[in-house]
Specification:
By secondary structure, the protein is mostly beta strands. It folds into two domains: 42-132, Sandwich (Immunoglobulin-like); 137-194, S-adenosyl-L-methionine-dependent methyltransferases. It is built from one helix and 13 strands, in the order H-E-E-E-E-E-E-E-E-E-E-E-E-E. Strand 10 (137-146) and strand 11 (151-160) form a beta hairpin. It is elongated, with a radius of gyration of 33 Å. Keywords: Signal. Residues 1-19 form the signal peptide.
Length: 195
């Protein structure tokens, strides 16, 4: 038992040192993909649209482009209120058959056309776009008819869209119903507010 404790004490005082070989990752520059002249270009979605967020005067219009070849294209808007986020961002380097996301800054509501030019300056695609103002109200309309009760009804509702978290919230509705057998008309009005 004494020998065991002696061996254990000796091993406890020993220090082991291990050294691992250094590990590193070396990134080697590969040959840049050979660029061809784009003859066609896909732009999606088909309808490019942005609604500015409530309380905002600017927003980002985002869409995707797709080229069948490795190519350089330039995107240009017909209106200066839709611009690249930074100068020079209108130049896109596209990899073949790879969707590439594009984001442009819209500084005001308007409509226009995006033009996509290949490296020779030829138009290869165009896409209309719309930047809509922030909504200030939401509206709804519902029409109902129930043959079992012979009732037809209509409900119209309107509500404000808060422009900031501090804004009052409100909605109003009008309801009208008619008994198609007797001609009896009924209805109501409702207004709700919260803050």
């Amino acid at each position: 038992m004494k020998r065991f404790l002696l061996v254990l004490c000796c091993l406890g005082g020993a220090q082991a040192q291990f050294s691992a070989p250094p590990v590193g990752i070396t990134v080697k520059e590969g040959a840049a993909p050979k660029l061809e002249v784009a003859r066609t270009l896909g732009v999606q979605p088909a309808a490019l649209a942005l609604r500015l967020a409530p309380g905002h005067s600017a927003g980002m219009l985002t869409f995707s482009v797709l080229s069948p070849v490795n190519a350089e294209v330039r995107v240009r808007a017909s209106d200066a209120r839709l611009t690249p986020r930074q100068a020079g961002d209108e130049r896109l380097i596209l990899s073949a058959n790879t969707l590439q996301s594009v984001t442009l800054l819209a500084t005001a509501p308007h409509s226009g056309v995006l033009s996509f030019l290949n490296s020779e300056g030829q138009l290869v695609a165009s896409a209309p776009y719309t930047v809509a103002a922030a909504k200030t109200v939401n509206q709804s309309l519902s029409l109902n008819y129930s043959p079992s009760s012979s009732r037809a009804s209509m409900n119209y509702g309107i509500s404000g869209v808060p422009q900031s978290p501090l804004d009052l919230r409100w909605n109003a509705s009008v309801n009208l119903s008619v008994d198609t057998k007797t001609g009896q008309v009924g209805g109501g009005v409702g207004v709700n507010m919260s803050w």
